[in-house]
Design brief:
Layout lengths: L2 H10 L9 E4 L2 H6 L4 H15 L3 E8 L2 E4 L3 H9 L5 E3 L4 H6 L4 E3 L1 H10 L4 E3 L10 H4 L4 H5 L6 E4 L8 H10 L4 E4 L18 E3 L2 H13 L7 E3 L10 H17 L7 H11 L4 H25 L2
Parallel strand pairs: 1-2, 1-6, 4-5, 6-7, 7-10, 8-9, 8-10
Antiparallel strand pairs: 2-3, 2-5
Helix pairs in contact: 3-4, 3-13, 10-13, 11-12
This protein binds pseudouridine-5'-monophosphate and manganese (II) ion.
């Protein structure tokens, strides 16, 4: 069968989660975001956090050219152990990975795109991609930011990753019309740290409040996703000035080693995970679990009358 027919058939048989409280999970965080075995342990723990809220976890990835909407623990384990064989997939290389029957870990952008095909409305991750520092010169702007205008999937994260330029990321989100909603906060959380100095305009103080705001965007039929920012729990929040010192060192090394394109974010996260005495990694695990809990509650609430 030719690939067009094969994929069209695969796509027409995708599961439909429109009337179910599903929460999508990505796999780039597994294969390119955390070291083994913390990556697989976290991936499985996230599924449990979501189930505990009465929602359905759906981990997304590409296994040998097959779009997986719901991966098995063995598949997740393979992604966790063999990152060198797993392509980091975004919107721009998804077709290539499928055509060549490769395996791919989906980023926020690709996970949103695939979740949307299966009518999954909620997605939990750690931190989304954004405008990189010096992005005005390098043009390094994550495709994650553009995906909100293309796929109607609401993403719960702990803010843009601290390695990024936060004010530029905020401007870019605003330009693209992405609703940015703080969960119990007036300030943008910055991934490892619960609070920044950047004020937010939209705030929800309960899950019902959040579902209400999201449903109001949905009623407008804009076919776009909202970005919910959920601060890392206070007890795990890192001191921004301390983590910033390590971030600056990581950025300096990335530049010196000419790290470019999609390798930048994994390089920086890897450096942080290895040079903070485990603090960056444990903060990342804590925040993503916290996001999975909120996403699970949100998925349930969005379906209630
Ligand atoms: N959140 C995490 N760890 C990660 C990521 C998010 O806690 O590794 C991944 C997501 O898949 C996100 C990607 O889409 O980092 C951003 O990569 P880039 O900057 O190349 O778009
Ligand atoms: Mn990039």
């Amino acid at each position: 069968m030719n690939i067009y027919k094969e994929l069209t058939e695969q796509l027409s048989n995708l599961p439909d989660y429109s009337s179910k409280p599903a929460v999508a999970l990505e796999t780039t965080i597994v294969s390119h975001g955390m070291p083994y075995p913390a990556n697989v342990e976290t991936a499985i723990a996230l599924e449990h956090e979501i189930t505990a809220q009465g929602a359905i976890p759906v981990t997304i990835g590409i296994v040998k050219g097959q779009i997986k909407i719901g991966m098995t623990p063995d598949e997740i384990d393979f992604f966790a152990k063999h990152h060198e064989e797993i392509v980091k997939v975004s919107r721009n290389n998804l077709g290539y990975v499928l055509a060549n029957k490769l395996s791919g870990a989906t980023t926020v952008a690709a996970t949103m795109l695939i979740a949307n095909l299966a009518n999954i409305k909620v997605f939990a991750t750690g931190g989304i991609g954004g405008v990189h520092r010096e992005g005005n010169e390098t043009f390094d702007i994550s495709a994650d930011l553009l995906e909100f205008s293309k796929s109607e999937v609401n993403v719960v994260c702990a803010g843009p990753k601290a390695i990024l330029d936060l004010p530029l990321t905020l401007e870019y989100l605003e330009t693209n019309g992405v609703p940015l909603i703080g969960y119990k906060t007036d300030y943008l959380p910055m991934f490892y740290s619960a609070k920044s100095n950047y004020r937010l305009e939209q705030r929800a103080d309960s899950v019902e409040d959040l579902a209400n705001i999201i449903n109001s965007y949905r009623a407008l039929n804009l076919k776009q996703g909202c970005l919910v920012v959920n601060p890392i729990p206070d007890e795990d929040s890192l001191d921004p000035t301390q983590i910033e010192i390590v971030i600056e060192k990581a950025l300096e090394l990335a530049k010196a080693n000419n790290i470019k394109g999609k390798a930048v974010t994994p390089y920086l996260l890897d450096y942080l995970n290895h040079h903070t005495g485990g603090k960056a990694l444990s903060a990342n695990i804590s925040l993503v679990k916290n996001n999975a809990r909120l996403a699970g509650k949100l998925a349930v609430s969005l379906l209630s009358e």
